[in-house]
Amino acid sequence: xxxxxxxxxxxxxxxxxxxxxxxxxxxxxxxxxxxxxxxxxxxxxxxxxxxxxxxxxxxxxxxxxxxxxxxxxxxxxxxxxxxxxxxxxxxxxxxxxxxxxxxxxxxxxxxxxxxxxxxxxxxxxxxxxxxxxxxxxxxxxxxxxxxxxxxxxxxxxxxxxxxxxxxxxxxxxxxxxxxxxxxxxxxxxxxxxxxxxxxxxxxxxxxxxxxxxxxxxxxxxxxxxxxxxxxxxxxxxxxxxxxxxxxxxxxxxxxxxxxxxxxxxxxxxxxxxxxxxxxxxxxxxxxxxxxxxxxxxxxxxxxxxxxxxxxxx
Length: 313
Description:
Order of helices and strands: EEEEEEHEEEEEHEEEEEHEEE
Helix content: under 10%
Number of strands: 19
């Protein structure tokens, strides 16, 4: 044991505790589930000097690593509207901060950022048999950050029952003209990505950020074979028979439902949807299991629609 190890420390370690996100001074999610990134990383350059074997190292350009935050929907209207605008290609840049606090909610660290753009929005696995609460995960990249220790009043924000209402099991998939898809039992996690171009100008060490394309992902789901008649017919016509013109594409939506399935919290509108793969999942003889169909859909465009009980515009 080190000498004097029984002496009380003059400095206490900071527990992870809780985190609060603010955008433009407005409270968003009171307590984030997780937070990572947001710190600058310099590129190291190694240069030779004449014929000597010695190398001189120094740093050149600096890039900020993206923030990665996971949060529920309670009090998250500002973040959801930011996502909504990004998908519409209304590239809104936000300033804000992430405040770290201990288990007594006392502030310990402040991470300020400015001119941030969303890079990714990830939705969780939607599974009808799950009992887990659902959380969104976003990555956003700012042009500037300031990180410092701090102390101040306790953190707090909007709280309520909305987060308890959003469960991974509460969802419904519908596609125009494809009856039965509302019985989809699982949709794999999917991520919408926003491209960003980094531009180094003049003497600035940090790059300026300019948005590029928005990439909407494919959707992968499973459904009982008993409800897949229309889905199988669509696959036969669209893929096997080759009716792949734009007129054969369809629109639809994913609705996120309250636990009692009586109300819609918010939804994702799906446009120009086509099917490109379908298969019967592996089955075992004499096993008591539901025979399921796995399907993969491509989506031309998605729109976040908050006109349910969430109350977004």
